[in-house]
Amino acid sequence: MKHTISVLVENKFGVLARVAGLFSARGYNIASLAVSETLDPQISYMTIVVQAEDEKILEQIEKQLNKLIDVISVTDFTKREHVERELVLAKVNYSAKQKTQLEKLLNKFLAKVVQRKEDTAIIEAVGEQEQIRQLLEGLAKFGVKELVRTGKLAISA
Amino acid sequence: MNGAQILIECLKREGVRVIFGYPGGQVLPLFDKLYDADVNFILVRHEQGAAHAADGYARATGKPGVCIATSGPGATNLVTGIATAFMDSIPMIAITGQVKTFLIGNDAFQEADVTGITRPITKHNFLVKDVKDLARIVREAFHIASSGRPGPVLIDIPSDVQLQETEFIWPEEVEIRSYKPTYFGHPGQIKKAAKLISAAKKPIIYAGGGIIISGAHHELKALAEKINAPVTWTLMGIGGFPGGHKLSLGMLGMHGTAYANHAIMESDLIIAVGARFDDRVTGRLDAFAPYAKVIHIDIDPSSISKNVKVDVPVVGDAKNILGQLIEEIKTTQDISEWLKTVEEWKKKYPLRYGDKGIIKPQYVIEQIYEATSGEAIITTEVGQNQMWAAQWYKYNQPRTFISSGGLGTMGFGLPAAMGAKMGCPDKVVFDIAGDGSIQMNIQELATCVCNKINVKVAILNNGYLGMVRQWQELFYKRRYSHTCLYNPDFVKLADSFGAVGILITKKEDVRPAIEKALSIDNVVVMDFRVDPEENVFPMVPAGEAINRIIGGLA
């Protein structure tokens, strides 16, 4: 099962390696990881989606993260009210005659075209994982040439 | 002051009196200042020796041990020693030189990413990029290494930083917002624990290295006597409870006593203190102590419920919590039946060995025990020698048994003995060694002789890598693949180092040789030719329930 946790860390070099190293050394899987500075530039915020088969593993992940000296706090969003989003950029095949069809799909998911070339369009979409999944399903018809995703971001409500 | 001077001044203020180390290109500025420093610097013969010596010093004294090496190979040679200290929660400061800041990442001569390499085997590590940070980092390093669950901390200092000048400012206070260990147990949890203890009919105390680290041996004894519970311990917990006490069950686990293993399996309450339910202790996890509720006292929350499901976790320092717990316990059940059963196991399954006239390794250890009145510091290598030293010497004081438990590092014993002797010069220090592992750091005999660190080395020489051979005998049809050793003449070897070597081939010469070794004011290497195929028993095969004991029961 996937769990979303956030980790506040000291914004020091090597801290990402410490967190990532912990996961690999103990055999935990990271599904996605997003890191950025917070309002306080000395602190970074990580949103980590982890694959944990049971509560025990999740508990260990939290405890082990807390053990790292540079980790300030760990929050498990599984049982907490929160808002989560992911940003995706997708390069899809596009021709003028598909315009209405594509726009209809994009409107449904509040997505937009950020760049258009002769036969491709780059689409930007923000949403919850399920919305993103549905959008990508719809885009598949046009042919997705390339896809990049930020991984999940989560904030407590 | 320059970086090197600041470092030395910080070490002095942290109370460091002894440093083990080895020079090299990227620590030249530091060594130049060490030349005039008021500190006892011990030049080892291999950096691994420096790390283990710092570790042994820390284990014997409770104070952080310090070792220094140069960049690249110097630092990587420390790695085994750092990992050893990490697994056993030993406070240690490893200082390494690094190539100049502007060369980092350039694959410069003797460059290695040492903070990267040691990240998973240190409690924390630092790369000092600016001399202005140095004093604060050293202060934080000592604080981190010696507080909470202790561990090694590495400070990597580029050689140009060692030369940079700045004003020396000693930070009086250490404030790390993300690091606040818990020292006192939660009162609610203590109450719950006391309630379980009051209801228990078959309680057992399972004590680990946390007892030694927190100095909780008096409290442990007081608790055991208050509730009349038998006490067993891990390899790391040896010395935390008097070995001769009537409630003592000795060590448990793979090579623990049969009665300790039976007792924990049949218990209805395990009071675990500063131990982590390691696989060598629990054996097959799903068969471990099926009737027991578990109270787990540990300063490291991640140790709790990692392997065994815990009913009442109490996070904090063992000494404090045991004190709180003793206050809280008002009544206990009548457990005389339980103690009687335990007594019967003790009578039925004593530790034993057969005496065939040739020298038995167990006999050598018993004789060392008697000759030293049980008051020596014993260090061990790893393997059979280690298990026999754990079983056959009775330890009554904490910090008298020094052994690589978690990592199981061969070559640990001699340099650790050196460190222990530096920390406790008035104590007799014995390294109980095997003929295999002694050769892994035997170069440190030179360090011992040069610095008059008069440790005594007892080699239980069976001509084999004994523990591996034992497993091959029991589980691999006696196919002794690469475990038979062709050894040097240890007496001549000792002699060439300037130490004294003694060869012992007869049982009746064992005690006189030990007495002689104790009377010689020098490093002594005793080569005991012991029964080549003696096994360590009792034994629980790996992956079995810990009451599935083979050997040593007849």
Q: Which stretches of chain A of 5+ consecutive residues score pLDDT under 50?
A: none
CATH architect. name of the largest domain in chain A:
2-Layer Sandwich
What is the largest interface, and how many residues per chain?
A: A-B, 20 and 17 residues
How many domains comprise the coordinates of chain B?
3
Count of DSSP-assigned helices of chain B: 21
Record field, number of beta strands of chain A: 9
Structure notes:
The complex is a heterodimer of chains A (157) and B (554). Chain A is an alpha+beta fold and 157 residues long. Chain A has two domains: 2-79, ACT domain (Alpha-Beta Plaits), CATH 3.30.70; 83-156, Alpha-Beta Plaits (2-Layer Sandwich). Chain A has four helices and nine strands. In chain A, the strands form two sheets. In chain A, strands 5, 6, 7, 8 and 9 form a five-stranded antiparallel sheet that branches. Chain A starts with a strand and ends with a strand. The mean pLDDT of chain A is 93. With 554 residues, chain B is of the alpha/beta class. Chain B has three domains: 3-163, Thiamin diphosphate (ThDP)-binding fold, Pyr/PP domains (Rossmann fold, 3-Layer(aba) Sandwich), CATH 3.40.50; 187-348, 3-Layer(aba) Sandwich (Rossmann fold); 361-529, Rossmann fold, CATH 3.40.50.970. Chain B contains 21 helices and 18 strands. Chain B has helices at residues 3-13, 28-34, 47-61, 73-87, 114-118, 134-146, 159-163, 187-199, 209-214, 217-227, 258-266, 279-282, 318-328, 336-348, 361-371, 384-392, 413-423, 444-450, 466-475, 490-497, 510-519, and strands at residues 18-21, 40-43, 65-69, 92-98, 124-127, 152-158, 203-207, 231-233, 248-251, 269-273, 293-298, 312-315, 377-380, 401-402, 429-434, 456-461, 500-504, 524-529. In chain B, the strands form three sheets. Chain B has a six-stranded parallel sheet with strand order 2-1-3-4-6-5, sandwiched between helices. In chain B, β17 (500-504), α21 and β18 form a beta-alpha-beta unit. In chain B, α1 (3-13) crosses α2 (28-34) and α8 crosses α13 (318-328). The longest helix of chain B is centred in the N-terminal third of the chain and has 15 residues, at 47-61. Chain B starts with a helix and ends in a 25-residue tail after the last strand. The A-B interface holds A 9-10, 13-14, 17-18, 21-22, 25, 56, 59-60, 63-64, 66-67, 69-72 and B 115-116, 119-120, 123-124, 127, 144, 176-179, 300-302, 305-306.
